[in-house]
Every structure is written in C-alpha cells, then in structure tokens.
Amino acid sequence: HTPVCSLCACSKMRMAPAMMLWLAVCLCGTWAVDKSNFKTCDQSAFCKRQRALKPGESPYRALLETMELTNTRLTLQLINDKNKVRLLLELYRLQGNMTRVKINELKPLKPRFEVPDVLIKEPTTEPMSLLSQDENGVVLSLGVESQRVILSARPFRLDIVEGREVLMSLNSRGLLAFEHLRIRKDTQADPEAEKKDDADPADQAEPFVPPEQTAKEDEKDEEGMWEETFKNFVDSKPNGPTAISLDFSLPGVEHVYGIPEHADTAKLKTTENGDPYRLHNMDVYKYELYSPMALYGSVPFIVAHNAQRTTGIFWLNAAETWVDISSNTAGKTVFGKMLDFVQGSSEKPQTDVRWISESGIIDAFILLGPTPKDLFTQYASLTGTQSFPPIASLGYHQSRWNYNDQEDVQAVDAGFDEHDIPYDYIWLDIEHTDGKRYFSWDPHKFSSPKEMLQGLKDKKRKLVAIVDPHIKIESSYKLHDEIHARDLYVKNKDGGNYEGWCWPGSTGYPDFTNPEMRALWVRMFAYDQYEGSMDNLHVWNDMNEPSVFNGPEITMIKDAKHGEWEHRDVHNLYGLYVQMATADGLIQRSGGVERPFVLARSFFAGSQRYGAVWTGDNIAEWDHLKISLPMCLSMSLAGIVFCGSDIGGFFNAPGTELLVRWYQASSFMPFFRSHAHMDTPRREPWLHGLDNTRLIRDIVRQRYTFLPFWYQQFYHSHKTGEPIMRMLWLDYPKETATFAIDDEFLIGKDLLVHPVTDEGATSVTAYLPGKDEVWFDIHTFKKHNGGQSLYIPVTISSIPVFQRGGSIIPKKLRVRRSSACMEHDPYTLYVALSNQKTAEGEIYIDDGYTFNYEKKEFIHRRISLANNVISSINLAPDAHFTTPSWIERIVIIGATKPSKVTLKAAGGLESQLDFEFDPSVSVLTLRKPGVNAGEDWTITLK
Questions:
Q1: Confidence of residue 32 (pLDDT cuts 50, 70, 90)
Q2: Where does the Glycoside hydrolase family 31 N-terminal domain start and stop, copy by copy (predicted)?
Q3: Assign residue 98 a region: left if phi > 0, alpha if psi is -120 to 50, beta otherwise?
Q4: Which of these, 62, 92, 118, 476, is most buried using a 10 Å CB contact count?
C-alpha cells in the first residue's frame, strides 16, 4: 500500500518530522495518481532517443562471411554502417517450436547484464540446417512443418515463415538499435582512457574493422546520455547510453495481449499517438485507469492471436522497458472495415511491436504456438508454472490496514463464526510490528502472538503477517545489524549503503540479487528466529518494487549498485527475488515439507513459481471493479495465474451495492481477499445491514462449495502452465467474437462467469461461445446454446455463471468454518450433459498443504458419462493416497428420466440407487451412491 493522506494518520506512523512533511507535501490531498511523479517517454532520455529513430533507415547489415553454423546454433556479426560497431547475433532453435535470438556487442568494454534466475533451466536446443545461401542472405530450416528462418543481409532482417506464410519478422521496420558501451569523450585524458588508447584495437568500444570500413561519422552526445535529471533526482549514468531496441512485425494479427501490469483492457491498444506501454516496477498511488503507465509488476511477454495461430514474444530484460504497439488497422471506422470487406482490401492486417530497454542485451524468445495450449506450454518451459498453493489459500481472506491488536483479531474471528461465514486467513499489516521492524510484534498490541496463532489454529484457520523488504536502520535491530555486518545492503554509486525513506523512516534495502542475502532472509523465517511465529503464519511482501518514498518515481535511484551491476539493470527483478526468498524461507522452516503461501505486489516473469499477486492500491469505484478483470486476465496470459484485487477497493468506502458486486466478481477469481486502507470505515462482511450480510455470506459460502474445482484447476495449471482465469478465445481460438471480450471469463474450460460491474444494473449481456456448445445456468439449470449473446436479467443477488455442457464439476456442499474443516467431507458431482449426452471431468485429492504430491501421494481420477454409464477411472495408477471422502450425490443436468439406476462399486457389488427427476429443468439427482471418492465405480442409467 501507499502512504496515507492525512497528517494525523502520518503521526500514527511514528515517523520523523521530515518524513511527515514529505508525505504531506507529495501525497496529501491527492485524490488520484500524481502523474508528474512518473516519467513519460519524453522525460525518459533513452525512450525519447529510441522513439526518434525513423522506420526504414536501419544502419545494420549482416556480415555473412562471419557466419558459423553448428548443429544447434548460428552466429554471425552485424555491423552498424554509421559507427562501424559490430554486434554478435546468436540464433537458436529450441525444443517445443521456439526460436531464441540474442544480440550483444561483439567486444563490449565490459560485460553487459544478462538476466539470471528467471529461466528455470537453459532451454534445450534442436538441430537447424542450412537450406540455401547467397550474397543477399541465408535460409535455415527449423524442421517443423516447413518452418524456415530467412536472414536477409542488407539491411539485417529475420523472417520466420511456414510454407508461404510469414509468421513473424524481426527488424522489418529497421528499428534495431544497440547503444554500445563507450568512453565518455570528456574523460579521454584520464589514465584509464589513455590505457585504452594504447590497447589492442580489438578490445576497443568500437571494435577493429577492416580499413575500408573505418570511415565513420561522429556520434553526437545528446542530453541525458551521460547524466539525467528528473525533478531533483540526478542519475549519474556512469556507463553512458546503453539502450537497446528491436521491432517485431506480426502479419495477419490484430489482437495482442499481455505485458502486464497495466490498468487497461486485455487487448493492447495502439500507442502511436501517446506513450508506449511502460514496464518499470513502481509504487503508484491510486493508479489511473486505461493508461499505459507502469504499475507494480512487469512481465515482458506479449501474446498475439488470430483465428489461425497463437504466437508470443518473451523479451528477457529486467531494465526499464517501453513497448510500442502499432497496427495498420487501428483507427479504422466500422464503415471503413465494411468497405474493405465489400470491395476486397489488399491490405493484410498487421501489428508491429517494438521493445525499447534501457540496458542489458537483446534476448528474445519467439514462441510459435500454434495453438494457445502450445503457447502456454512453451512459455512454462522457459519460466515455470504457477506454484501449487495450499488449498486454504484458495478460500476467503479477511484483511485491513490494520487490525488493531490481538483482541481485535479475536473479535473479527469470532464475528465470522457468529454470522456463519467461512474464512481461512486473517491478515496483519505493518502496524502489528514493533516500530516497523519486520519479523517482530508490537509488544503492547500483540504481546502473545503464539496464543493468538494457536487460537486460530484450533479453529483450523491461519494468519498472514506482512514482511516488507525495507529494513529500519537502527543499531539495536538484529536484522539490520546482521545485514550491515555482512555488507549485504544495496550500495549507492559511491559505495556506501543506499538509504531511503519508507515506513520505518530511514531505511536500508537488502540486496536480494545476492544469494547470500537471500539465504540470510530465508533463515529469518525459522521458528527460533521469527519469534512468535507458527506453522499457520504465512507472509505478505508489500512495497517490493522496491518502494522508496523519497526516491525518483517513488523507487530506487538507478545508479545504486548491486555488486557489479547497477540498479537500472536489475530493477524489475527485485520484487521477484524478495518473493523467492520469502517462499524459500517458509519452505525451509518446515524442513521442506509444507507448501508456502506468499503474496507479493511486485513481480516479474517467473514470479508465478513463488506465490500470488494482486492488483495493488485500487479505489472503491465501479471502474476499478471493472478493470480488475482485464488486469488479472492479462497477468494470467503472462503466467501470473494466482491473481485477485482488493474487494471493495483499498482506498475510500464502497457503497453496499458496489461491495456486494465486488464480492461476487472476486469470488470467481483465483485470489479472494477483502482489504482496505486504515482511514476507511471498517467493512467486515456483517457491517452492512442484514440483507447485505446475507448476500455476502451466500457469496463466500458458494466459493467454498467450489474449492475442489479450484484446487483441481491449480493442480492442472501447475502441471501445464495453462491459465485458470482465462479469456474466452483460449478455448475458442477460431471464434473472432471472443477476441476482445474481457468483461467475462472462463475458469478452466468449464465455468463461464460474467460479473455485474455496472451500478444499478438490471441486466447484462453475456456471450456464450461455441456454436456446438450448450451452457447451463448453475443456479437455474436453464439450458442455452453457445455462439450467441444472451440477455440476462439480474438482481443484486445475481452473478451470471454457466457450466459448459459436457463437463463434470466436483463440489462440496457442506460448508464449514474453513477449508481444513471440510477436508474429509463428501463430494457432489455436477454433470452437465453435452448435445451428445456425454460429459467428462476430474477429481484431484491430496493432503492439501504438503509437497507429498510430488511423491505420488494423491488421487487423480477421471469421471465420465457416455452411453448412459458414469464411470470413475484412475488417471494415476502409480500414485498412492487414501481419503475417507465419498460421493454423496450426483446431479445430472440436461438429463432424461431413467427407469432404474444401478451402481457397481469396487469389488463388483451391485445395488440400485434412489433418484429424483425434475422434468421442469431436466435434472436427475442420484442420492447417496456411497462410493469412496478414490475408488473405481460405475453407474448405469437404464
């Protein structure tokens, strides 16, 4: 969360007067984001320089005589004909229909940063072969369905083609740029520079080239190349200009998605008349909607889709990055598009994507699909899948900044029982600590944390405590002393410890890029280090962008140092490292047995391996409820699956209608948490009148009935990389009507949800995909055909949700106070029949919280209905796990009445089952089959 906006609130924070004044001046009275605190492209020197380059004037050509081709790798040199600097191009064909392109200086003055720890392993390469070569270029085979790479020499360009179709082009607009490391002209007289003058020319910033190529034009130093000022902050830029840029063209594509995090539609918009989308992790107060401004997290992964193919580009760079989107169809009127259709347009749709990063190298992965499922498999093979969370974390979370003390926590906990509302986690914000010293407790307000935790544990509930990555600088604070003694803080440009202002006041920032620092952090979660903690305490990492209240753009100055690297090189990685170390800490405190739950605000590609994220400091407004859907859909497309938003809005007080609608929408999103600012009125679910308490109770209880289905979806996503909350086109890739829809979504492939996000709404129009599909309203069991827009009347208690015909969804209908209390309860199977009177689904069961599933301790079964026979089949015969849970009911939707129903259980015993049939909705209910959920059985309908 971001600083409060009142001096009286500031005084509660026990901060220094200077800090209070800064907060008052900068943030108080601001009702929305102060955009002047954050750079535009024109205020970011490297972005302005790169954007000034004109398409079609590329100075780069490929030196074909330098080409070397091994079995799996092509290398050749590129030369910039203006300055004669050479680059090294590396091209790899990767397993799984991917191509990797790396471009670096051939002989840089010193190494350039290459992103570590994001790829789960070095990707497996596959053979390439040379098909043809002449003075204009080379053609390589990628070995998949006539896929080829065409490398053109002058100007340099790469085209990836399949048959006669161009799938993607690199540098087709000629916007490749690579600002080489160089010596500043006004420092030539210094000894280091003189040494360079006497050195081997091959080691110079401008590598040795043949005499005929040495005529080079002088490079002019532009403003911001060697030093840049924003407001009162000076970035010293000791390495000078280091920006890189490359354009990608996507023929036949009109829809691109991804590159979270932005508060915008899921379909990315053209940026030609405004700023590019920015990826630079920052603490943004009351963020603006429908804007390309950077927010808390960055995933440089873009997804392109049309009816024929899904492709992706993963730009592996952790520096500040801007992404320009242009389209030759953007801005066309409906009439213009109709005219194209009638007259026959020769113009093929195309989207161009240009990446601009401040430093590092070009390391781009081209994912060629062709299906959405293939694409997510490919991306997961690079950055990993969503961690498999404990089932409790899929329940309801109750939070605010801050629950006052232990008595307050106990009262809120009791309130849930009194009002019969289940929950799994209660949260504590920064005020629970002893003076913002993390890993501690306020000795007056939380004097007996173990007693509090034990009270929750007795009810099978848990607590989340915040642990932020800024450390109070105080000699008596054990954590600070150890980090300082071991010299593990981030440094300033002069080599001293970097200090900023955050919640504790004067603050140090641990260098989480250093494995030694991460190991220290991991140890802090041990029970003998984190005093008062227990196994039912999980963790929240806020402010991990990192947030620096008195820093440029409320984050860390770029010339700070992490070992040999500047902060500008690693900035977007910082939050990932914090969450990584925290998750490892929770795992190691249990001896590697228990799965952690860690929420983080800042993230990067690969953060999905460590826990959940949320959409940050939103506002109690209808538009913020609406935007939460595309924000989480975009994150899901980029691998960040465990996503949600603060129910009701973090800032301000929601009206009861908005609060109820937000509960409804969030109950069908992966992360389900209510959270609020300390200055807002209390909003526990029972504080809004009896009618609204009843509505919220029903919503939360409904979430708990679906926990088996949610858990199964997370297991599947953990294994495959597929999103859980997903855009409709992922499962209906040829259905163009779905391509821009982001006000409804699928959960897996079997549930479709259209939240009500307009004030006073009496109806919504939902699109039901699949012309051959049928969809059943989960509340009324009414049947609707797919491939249509459906008008749906709604009341305040309505949330339109549909189950796909042909699916089977497991639920638990005996809702108790927490998920753990429901562990051994029986299942009800909801079977929605397709037009062919078939259906299929799964049941996945394990212990819900340990890593024992990796040792094959789980149950995974397919439940199917075909030819009037329902059967349970073991999908993991080598796995071993037992459960007392049984099947107590099977509800078949879209059924006809049978004359009798016969059960054959494990061991061959046959028996007749009682059933009920409701002809008004064609629902057949089979009562008490009584079979164990982990055993084989069949039911025959006659």
A1: confident
A2: 90-324
A3: beta
A4: 62
Length of the chain: 942
Average pLDDT, the chain: 93
Smallest CA-to-CA distance from 466 within 538, 573, 390 is with 538
Flag whether pLDDT at 29 surpasses 70.
Answer: no
| Cis peptide bond N-terminal to 116, omega within 30 | no
Q: What is the DSSP string of 449-494?
A: HHHHHHHHHHTT-EEEEE--S-EE--TT-HHHHHHHHTT-BPB-TT
Q: Distance between CA atoms of 464 and 746, rounded to whole angstroms?
A: 29
Annotated catalytic residues are 542, 617
CB 129 within 8 A of CB 201: no
Question: How many C-beta neighbours within 10 Å does residue 394 have?
Answer: 27
* 23 within 8 A of 3, measured Cβ to Cβ: yes
CATH of domain 49-180+239-383: 2.60.40.1760
Write the DSSP assignment of 833-885 as a string of letters: --TTS-EEEEEEE--SSBGGGGGT--EEEEEEEETTEEEEEES-TT-------
Distances (CA, A) of 885 to 51, 205, 720, 776, 827: 61, 69, 27, 27, 7
In angstroms, the CA 596 to CA 391 distance is: 11
- Rounded to 5 degrees, what are φ and ψ at 456? -70, -45
What percent of the chain has a predicted confidence (pLDDT) above 70?
A: 91
The reply to whether 49-180+239-383 and 391-468+512-728 are identical in fold is no
pLDDT exceeds cutoff 80 at 337: no
Distance of CA 546 to the CA centre of its chain: 17
Return d(Cα 432, Cα 437) in angstroms, integer: 10
Predicted confidence (pLDDT) at residue 220 exceeds the cutoff of 80: no
Instruction: Tell me the per-residue pLDDT of 141-167, one tens digit each, with 9 for 90 and over.
Output: 987 668 999 999 999 999 999 999 999
Asked if the 736-941 domain carries CATH number 2.60.40.1180, the reply is yes
Confidence at 265, pLDDT banded by 50, 70, 90: very high
- The mean-pLDDT minimum among 203-212, 424-433, 763-772, 931-940 falls in 203-212
Question: Cβ atoms within 10 A of the Cβ of 52, count?
Answer: 8
Shortest CA distance to 419 belongs to which of 812, 795, 825, 700?
700
- Half-sphere exposure for 563 (CA within 13 Å, toward CB): 10
Inter-helix orientation angle 515-524/574-589, to 10°: 40
pLDDT band at 885 (very low <50, low <70, confident <90, very high): very high
The DSSP element (H or E) to which 373 belongs, if any, is helix 372-383
For the stretch 688-704, what's the b/e string if a residue is b when 16 or more beta carbons lie within 10 angstroms of its beta carbon? beeebbebbbebbbbbb
Q: Give the architecture (CATH level 2) of 391-468+512-728.
A: Alpha-Beta Barrel (3.20)
Measured between alpha carbons, how far is 368 from 356 in angstroms, rounded to an integer? 22
Instruction: Please choose, from the candidates 772, 727, 769, the residue with its C-alpha nearest in 3D space to the C-alpha of residue 748.
Output: 727
Q: To which residue do tokens 């972005």 refer?
A: 47
The ranges assigned to domains in the chain are: 49-180+239-383, 391-468+512-728, 736-941
- Express each pLDDT in 222-247 by its tens digit: 889 999 999 999 999 999 999 999 99
Rounded mean pLDDT, 397-406 = 97
How many secondary structure helices (H) and strands (E) does the chain include?
A: 16, 53
- Tell me the three state secondary structure of residue 901: strand
What is the C-alpha separation between 318 and 46, in angstroms, rounded? 15
Amino acid at 804: R
DSSP per residue, 735-758: -GGGTT--SSEEETTTEEE----S
Lowest mean pLDDT among 344-358, 422-436, 813-827, 837-851: 344-358
| Token duo for residue 19 | 């800090």
